[in-house]
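Chain A, query sequence.
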Amino acid sequence: MPKKKLSLQLLWIVLAAGTLALSGCGGGGGGSSSSLADGTYRNTVSGNYATEYNYQSMLSSINPLSLNDYGYTGDGVRVAVVDSGIDSSHSEFDGKTILGYDFAGSASGYAADENGHGTHVASIIAGERDGTGMRGVAYDASLYSYKVDNDGDSSLEGLSTDTQIADVFNRHVTDNIQISNNSWGGSSRITSATESSLRSSFPETISALRAAQNNGTLLVFAAGNSGALQPNYFGGMPLKITELADEWLVVTAVDSNLKETAYTDRCGDAWAFCVTAPGGGDSSSTDGILAAEPSGTYTRKSGTSMATPHVAGLAAALMEKFPSLTAAQIATRIKNSASYSGLTTYDGYTESTASVSYMRSVFGHGLVNATAAASQIGSLIYPKNGEIEGGHNIDLNKISMSAGLPKNIQKQIQNTDFAVFDSFDGARFFVSGEKIFETNNQTFHLPSYKKKITSSATYQTENRSNFYDDGITSNQPDISMHFASDESQKIVTNELFWNEKSNLFNTPSIFSKQKSNGIYFNGTILNIDNLSFNMQPFLNYSDSDNNIGGGGISVNAELANKLSLSLGFGAEKQSLDNGFGSSSRTIGNYQNVEFGLQANLSPSNRGFFRFTQGTIDDVSPTVQSFGLQGAELTGWTVGFENKSDYGKLAFGLSKPTELSGGKVSILAPNGRTKAGDIYYKEMAFAINEETAYQTFLSYKYEGDNLDISVNLTNDRYKQDRFGEIRLDISYQF
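Chain A, predicted structure.
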């Protein structure tokens, strides 16, 4: 009976060079993070900038530095301030070109502010980071002044009729406004209005609001300053006009102690689209929000008017960080990341002493938090087949890189930032490759063109027919033809050394498990005196869908049973495991050349040498697999063997067959459109592999019923190890 494998790897002992320690827990990926900093860090509050930042004492309560310090400052995001105008000459707007429109027909135009309210609000959003005065939440945002106050009396002449209000929001579409700050509202509560009354009173306004939203505008409204239980009917309008709810936020206010102010209207029934932000205390002169006022000065003001631009500024910074997210998704992220932590109601209740429903009625989703809004909410996904859904969750485990990628390539990949996407809303984050990919210690072995045919029922079946004539003289060829079905297996790095050296052409294969069928010819073409030549051509094909196959030829020469020389060439296509995880693909036009030399020094001693080199024609990357361009693969083994009655002992040097030239490329995800489509960019890494080798000391015993093989190797790549011992046992029963 054939020998059966008890265990391909019965025992694997790792000999550590230093103190043993469990330095990791499982094979998990990057894991959840409280903050994913994927920009270039700089301290934006050093020196005079700290004084400027601290003047706006409540700014820190929403944690904007987690965005600002990494370069997310609203740059390029268009924010409309529907208000009394903006004094563009104020130093807080130096370097900004403020565009806009005067809807009130004032004498001074949109770039002036007779009231001061609009200037104050605008500076909270985008006041300059210049080391003086104060600074805005998104200080690089582009401001649009939509002036609706004619003479500074707060009567808002530009919002007097349904048509006038509609004109303002239709202008949002014209200017492609991304965020609209509306620190104004009506005197009535939203709960006193009905859907029909609103639709009949403001048909044009509702249409214009929806048009702006459809064009990508997030609308941010103040709840109101009446100390009421419900927001005003403009701020709370989506409660009745439900199609407006997704791209809408209404804002209520807390003071510097995060306590509900006396003046603020509560979220009430509109809590589903309501959040909280710092608006200044009840005593505005001492505890108000410090911000710009016309004529280059500063003043403190309190109100939900001041809370609203904090949220608008946060939204602007988030839109810069997450350009693929829609206005609705930005609003959802702000709401989902808000919290009741630290908040106190005016009547003294906190998160721990009040019901959730009560806290909602006061604060909506809670105090906005830039750090939480800028961080992952769901799991981080590396897309698969262009989709986030069904992609690889790197918070659970990493992706194993392709077997055989050179170690320097694996290091390059792990040191490169890649885009991943939050399963919550598809928000893009950049994380280092080491959080996504784990190294693969399998070596990229060349597939041999000479196929090893055995009778092992475990891996192969064989039908053999021999064609020869007993009467043929010794100088005529002995010819055999083999029909074989071979189910190939993936081979790990430390495949038995004996296969590496004793069969000069039998190289372990990295190619994925597949069943192939072949025809193999063996023929002795010359056998005279002490010299013989043997030729072994073959053809094989796969019954897989990839139609994989190849062919080759080898010639062996043997002189006086002392010196054996082998030379051959092969070409084939195979299914290459070069994708992420378990995926495989077909590669084209693979060629390899092999050379072997064996010197029998005595009946019990021999030296051996084997060299192999292969090339792979250009293979382009896909979204799920690496590409190889100009790929070269080389490997060699040299050693000495002693044979005795007690077994075989061998030692020497071996360079595993690995990629040694060309480049590896990846189609890496780079971003996502607002429609949800992922787009990619090609990233290439040059193969510049250092000469690597393994020293080996191997012993093999072959008995009638029992085979034992022990191999000790020292892998130069594994700096933290001096060796590995592998024990393999086969037995017959």
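DSSP finds 13 helices and 33 strands in the chain. The two ends are 7 Å apart (CA to CA).
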